Amino acid sequence: MVTQAQRDELNRMFKLLDSDGSGVVTKDDFEEKVQAVASVGNRKPGTPEYDRVQSCYTNQWNSLKKAADTNDDGEVTQEEWLTWAEKAVSESGTFEKLVKETAAAIFDVMDVDGSGTVSFEEYKKVNKIYGLDEATARKMFDEVDGDRDGSITKEEHLKTQDWFFTKLG
Ligand SMILES: [Ca+2]
Ligand SMILES: [Ca+2]
Ligand SMILES: [Ca+2]
User: Which one of 50, 97, 104, 125 has the fewest CB atoms closer than 10 angstroms to its CB?
Assistant: First the structure.
């Protein structure tokens, strides 16, 4: 069983996944993110940087489809998402593993120059794609940047993913 707070959060995640707002999550939603994210670092098709972004989102879509597209029609509906995600949340470790894998992949995408850390400039640009304004991005960045040195390491980034399980669990 999941709590109402967890269900609200899962619904919010579904909306984030549905980039084009069509009401279902399909490969197109991930394609759209590839274009948007690649444009941030001026990563052009054909470059290794672009391939990195593309494979990140292709993998995310493939895992999601495999896990949640129960009737195998290439669309993950909100119902399919909730059915799978609620089950995964109640099974210890399953959902956590997916969230962490996704978070790690997103970190690599945010780290435009491949320095191993994410600066506020990088963070701001990628989060803009997800509809966050600069003030909100600043607030989130400061929360994630645990040692306040002005950059986010992968460890700091992954640590913040625990909130879903600790706060709502
Ligand atoms: Ca969609
Ligand atoms: Ca489906
Ligand atoms: Ca830091």
Answer: 97
Burial class (CB in 10 A: 0-12, 13-18, 19+), 59: middle
CA of 104 to the centre of ligand 1 (A): 23
| Domains held by the chain: number | 1
Cα of 50 vs centre of ligand 2, distance in Å, is 29
Q: CA 52 to CA 49: how far, in whole Å?
A: 5
CATH number, position 109: 1.10.238.10
* 68-108 confidence digits (pLDDT tens): 999 999 999 999 999 999 988 888 777 778 778 888 888 88
pTM of the predicted structure, to 2 decimals: 0.77
